Amino acid sequence: MQEAASKLSAFVSLGDWFYCDRTDTVNGVALARIDGGTLANAKSLTVRRNYHRAAGLTRGRVELQRNVPTYLVKDDHEYDPDNASYSPAWLDNQFAASSPHSAQDLTDVWTAAATAWREWAQGNPASEVSSGILGGPDCYRMRIGPLEVWCTDLIHERDYTGTVDGPSKRMMSALQEEWLLNTMAASSAPFKLWVCSKQFISSCGRNSDGFTDLGGSGRGYRTQLARILADARFPRAGCLSVTGDEHLRSDMMVSAGQFGGSHAAISQISAGPATIPVITDPNDGLAYRAGVRDKERDISSADRRGENNYVLLRVLGDRVERYVLGSRYGLRFMGYLGASDNVIRR
Question: What is the pLDDT of residues 46-55, one digit of tens each?
Answer without folding.
Answer: 999 999 999 9
